[in-house]
Design goal:
Number of helices: 2
Structural class: alpha+beta
Number of strands: 2
Largest sheet: 2 strands, antiparallel
Order of helices and strands: HEEH
Number of domains: 2
Helix content: 55-70%
Distance between the termini: 33 Å
């Protein structure tokens, strides 16, 4: 009988990189919150950009909110375009 499960047990490289990236982002955000609390600083504004199907929707408040919102929206659009190019190339490779 042939063993169908010859590949290495455990998580794939993609899953490991995803978890590592999530942990790095979480750790960075936690360190920023701790540093801000230690200084006694307050929050004067914020920005939220959500990509809803293919349109980035953003809300901003506080000082320089419009500038930060425009920059983050442009970054979101660029990342969406890069993602679409990568997916399109992979689909073309699969069709061949």
């Amino acid at each position: 009988m042939v063993d169908m499960y010859e590949e290495e047990a455990g998580l794939s490289l993609g899953v490991k990189l995803f978890i590592l990236g999530f942990l790095l982002i979480f750790t960075g955000a936690l360190l920023l919150m701790i540093a801000q609390a230690a200084r006694g600083g307050g929050v004067s504004g914020g920005v939220v950009v959500v990509v809803f199907p293919f349109i980035p929707v953003g809300v901003a408040w506080g000082d320089y909110a419009s500038v930060i919102l425009v920059v983050l929206t442009v970054i979101a659009v660029v990342l969406m375009i890069i993602n679409m190019i990568i997916v399109y190339r992979r689909l073309r490779e699969v069709e061949r």
